[in-house]
Structure formats: structure tokens, C-alpha cells
From TrEMBL:
Family assignment from sequence similarity: Belongs to the PC-esterase family. TBL subfamily.
Record flagged with keyword Membrane: yes
Cell compartments where the protein resides: Membrane
UniProt keyword terms in alphabetical order: Membrane, Signal-anchor, Transmembrane, Transmembrane helix
Bilayer topology: Single-pass membrane protein
Matching Pfam families: PC-Esterase (PF13839), PMR5N (PF14416)
Species in which this protein is naturally found: Hibiscus syriacus
GO molecular function annotations of the record: O-acetyltransferase activity
Official protein name in the record: Protein ALTERED XYLOGLUCAN 4
Listed GO CC annotations: Golgi apparatus; membrane
Length: 429
């Protein structure tokens, strides 16, 4: 279905649908009304950390290898959810020259983004230290393994961040590519026999995406997984799931073959059921199926679910200055609330439920990559107008498309993989 979403390929970018969909999500459906409709009551702040758990760091905490989780096993594992962004002179591990797999729309520096301050921040969790990403550690822990990123374009964004960081040590060889706009790809790192794949599957469950030739809404079967990735489960050792934004689109939902309801489907004479319950069902189905299929297999699997990554449209999406910030938010400046909070909670809750389920079997581990808060605090990390090369080469035009959803590479999304590596390290200990 070509270029129908802000959340996928922007290569042939100026088509009508690409312009139209962000409009549907962010303008036609005013956020205030949207929030009121789906979330009439404010969420309690998710920010308060129990002070009893606070770990006092000694002055040696500046040593990047220090982390409370590196002690004995009865210490509380680091909670990366809350924290603040602090300045960091070191900067990223890669750039658009050293990494060849940055998607065009996210290659902000190459596209002429002039301010580079957004590259010099690191996430400082409230209670511990988050070490810099160490590609060698990743390779050692994942050697002879196959890791897959499955989901929408945020999954791809996270995958490309990981590939770029790994590429600073070893070259990825593209061994498979299929689908329009490279939706299905696989790389092999010969040096450590590590395989990394990406699967396009914006609902995780079986679905038909809206298109010009097909339905003008998405169709989802909430009770069956998408076999485009599911049929490869046997070969996967680790899977990183990432969905969210696609559930905002107009859709008709099916369960057990019959219509469950719909979301934003005027004219179809179906019951509006919103998308929260549907996304929950999709995640439940996915985790249950993974655990069910892997349980008896003897091979085990590690599963991450990346929590919702908020967008930062402040102005109109097609005008200059849609996401104009150049610095992170300060601690306490913004709470995770409204839709962001609800989307995050669904991921956290379903992973917690899956942990209980997985416990009955050996070799199955599931965890949330809780990136909602740290991502919310990075309004400065999006391509904005630099989704296209040199958008202001001829001065500021009346219409400028902006991407305030995905993340520049390098950029804040590198932190997601930094946290993921720490959890993998903890698991292997
Ligand atoms: C980490 O902290 C967040 C926010 O306080 C909380 O929601 C979450 O459950 C914590 N995670 C773990 C694994 O304790
Ligand atoms: C990219 O990084 C390499 C290696 O660190 C460096 O030599 C090069 O100058 C950088 N390129 C840009 C455009 O910053
Ligand atoms: C390389 O890794 C794959 C799993 O991704 C494994 O099946 C294969 O045996 C490994 N090859 C070697 C030579 O260890
Ligand atoms: C809408 O659906 C209801 C219940 O299925 C049905 O009774 C009614 O005739 C439908 N209305 C239209 C205009 O199709």
C-alpha cells in the first residue's frame, strides 16, 4: 500500500496519502477532543519513585562501569524508567558516514539539520547508572543468536540504531531483503555469527493495512498473530516488539472471524470500540502465541516489548516549527499522561501478565523496554523538517512536512538499545 502512513516509508514522500494521514491523526481529530473521548480523567503521575528504594551513589559513580545491578544478585535491578537527561561530551558512537543503514528520512545531519546539541545528552536513571552502549559486549552475549525486530516503523527505527552502533565494531552483511521499502530485511555479522532481522508488522496480529486499492481503513484480526514473522519463530532467539501509532488509524476489528467493532469508521454502521482494548488484545495474543509455541521447543526465547514512544507535534505538521525544540525537557517538566500513559500501561501490564505465564516454562524471558518517559522528554530528537534533505534551501516555504514521530539517527533512540543491552546483561548473569 505504497506510502500511506507517516509511520512507514517516506521515500516517495510527497504523495497525497502521506500528507493526508498525519492530518487524520493529528489534526482532523483534535487532540483535546481525542483525549477527552478516550481519557476523560487525568492519570495519576507515574513519576514518583519510592524513596525507600533509592540507592545512594558514591562519588565513584562517574565511572561508567558502575551500576548497582553489577553487585550481588539480591540487589534490586536498575529501574531505567525515570530519570533525567544530562549533558554528555562523548556524543554518539556513529554518524551518517560510518553507518550505511540509516533510513533516509532519519538521517538528520546529512539532511542539513544545523543544530547538533541534541547529540550530546545521556539518560541518567534516578537510581543507578546507564553505561554507554558497548558493541563488543552485545556481540559476546548474542553470538550465534538471531534477534528480530517486529512491529511498525518505530521497530525499524530502533533496529537501525542498533545496527549503526554495532557497525562501529563489525560490518553487517545484508543477507535478505524483501517487500516494498525494505520492510523485511536480515543482516549477518560474520565476526560473531549474529543475525539481526526486521519484520514489518504494524499490528503484530494478522491485518490488512488500508490502501488505495483495498479498504480505506485497517482490518485487524486480534486473535491470530501475523505469520509473516510468526512462521519464523522457530529460528529466533530474541524478539523486540514495537507497536502503537498504527492503532490510531481508522480500523475494523475481527475476533474469531466475526466483527468485534471498529475505530473511527463513520458510515460503516459498526460499534465504535476505540483502540486501547484492541491493542491490548493484539499484545496478549502475540505474547501468548510466542510463549505457547516456544514452551515445548527446548530452545527458549527472550522477548522485549518497547513501550509507546510519544510524538511531539507542537504546531501544524505541515508548517515550519512543528517540533522546534533543540533541548530535552528538564526533569519534572512533563508527565507521561493521557494517551501516552495509557499506551505505556497496556505494554507494561501485558508484559507483567506474560511473565507469570512464562514462568511455568524454562528459557522464556519477557521484559518491557519502558522508554515512554525518556522519549517524551526528547522533543528535540525528531527529524522535523529534516526528514527531507535541506528543506530550507530555498528559504522557508509555506508548506514543510515534518516528522515529529520518528527519531534522528544518531539520536535519543540509541538509548533504548543501551537499556536493552543492560537487561540482556542482567539476564545472562
Ligand atoms: C520502574 O518504575 C516505574 C515507575 O515508577 C514503575 O511503573 C515500574 O513498575 C518499575 N519497574 C520495575 C521493574 O520495578
Ligand atoms: C564520522 O565519524 C568518523 C569516525 O568517528 C569521523 O572520522 C568522521 O569525521 C565523522 N563524520 C562526520 C560527518 O561527522
Ligand atoms: C550461527 O548461528 C545460528 C543461529 O543464529 C546457528 O544456528 C548456527 O549453528 C551458528 N553457526 C555456527 C558456525 O556456530
Ligand atoms: C445498522 O446495523 C443494525 C444492526 O446490525 C441494523 O439493524 C441496521 O439496519 C443497520 N443500519 C443500516 C443503515 O444499515
Amino acid at each position: 500500500m505504497g506510502v500511506t502512513s507517516p509511520l512507514k516509508g517516506q521515500t516517495h514522500s510527497r504523495s497525497f496519502t502521506t500528507k493526508f494521514l498525519p492530518y487524520v491523526i493529528y489534526a482532523l481529530f483534535p487532540i483535546a477532543l481525542f483525549r477527552f473521548y478516550f481519557h476523560p480523567f487525568p492519570s495519576p503521575p507515574t513519576d514518583q519513585l519510592p524513596h525507600s528504594n533509592r540507592i545512594v551513589l558514591t562519588s565513584s559513580s562517574s565511572s561508567s562501569s558502575f551500576s548497582i545491578e553489577e553487585g550481588t544478585s539480591n540487589e534490586v535491578p536498575c529501574n531505567y524508567t525515570n530519570g533525567r537527561w544530562v549533558r554528555d561530551k562523548m556524543g554518539p558512537l556513529y554518524n551518517g558516514t560510518t553507518c550505511g543503514t540509516i533510513k533516509d528520512g532519519q538521517n538528520c545531519i546529512s539532511h542539513g539539520r544545523p543544530d547538533l546539541g541534541y547529540l550530546y545528552w545521556r539518560w541518567q536513571p534516578s537510581q543507578c547508572e546507564l553505561p554507554r552502549f558497548d558493541p563488543k559486549t552485545f556481540f559476546n552475549l548474542l553470538s550465534n543468536k538471531h534477534i528480530a525486530f517486529v512491529g511498525d516503523s518505530m521497530a525499524r527505527n530502533q533496529l537501525e540504531s542498533l545496527l549503526c552502533m554495532l557497525a562501529s565494531v563489525s560490518n553487517p552483511n545484508l543477507v535478505y531483503a524483501n517487500g516494498e521499502d525494505n520492510k523485511f530485511r536480515r543482516w549477518h555479522f560474520d565476526s560473531h555469527n549474529v543475525t539481526v532481522s526486521v519484520y514489518w508488522s504494524p499490528f503484530l496480529v494478522r491485518g490488512v493495512e488500508k490502501s488505495k486499492t483495498g479498504p480505506d481503513h485497517n482490518e485487524l484480526h486480534v486473535d491470530v498473530i501475523d505469520e509473516r514473522w510468526g512462521s519464523d519463530l522457530d529460528h529466533l532467539d530474541m524478539i523486540v516488539l514495537s507497536i502503537g501509532h498504527w492503532f490510531l488509524h481508522p480500523a475494523v476489528y475481527y475476533e474469531g472471524g466475526s466483527v468485534l467493532g471498529c475505530h473511527y469508521c463513520p458510515g460503516l454502521n459498526l460499534t465504535e470500540i476505540g483502540f486501547y482494548d484492541v491493542m491490548r488484545k493484539a499484545i496478549k495474543t502475540t505474547l501468548k502465541t510466542i510463549i505457547g509455541r516456544k514452551a515445548g521447543s527446548g530452545s527458549g526465547i527472550d522477548v522485549f516489548l518497547t513501550s509507546f514512544s510519544p510524538s511531539h507535534f507542537e504546531g501544524e505538521w505541515d508548517k515550519a516549527g512543528a517540533c522546534p525544540k533543540t533541548e530535552p525537557d528538564r526533569e519534572g517538566e512533563k508527565m507521561v499522561e493521557g494517551m501516552d500513559a495509557d499506551m505505556r500501561s497496556i505494554a507494561v501490564e501485558e508484559i507483567e501478565a506474560a511473565k507469570v505465564n512464562a514462568k511455568q516454562f524454562g528459557g522464556l524471558r519477557v521484559e518491557t523496554l519502558d522508554v515512554t518517559k525518556l522519549s517524551l522528554m526528547r522533543p528535540d530528537g525528531h527529524p522535523g523538517p529534516y526528514m527531507y534533505p535541506f528543506p530550507f534551501a530555498n528559504g522557508i516555504q509555506e508548506h514543510v512536512q515534518n516528522d515529529c514521530v520518528h527519531w534522528c539517527l544518531p539520536g535519543p533512540i540509541d538509548t533504548w538499545n543501551q537499556i536493552m543491552l543492560q537487561v540482556i546483561k542482567r539476564w545472562r548473569r
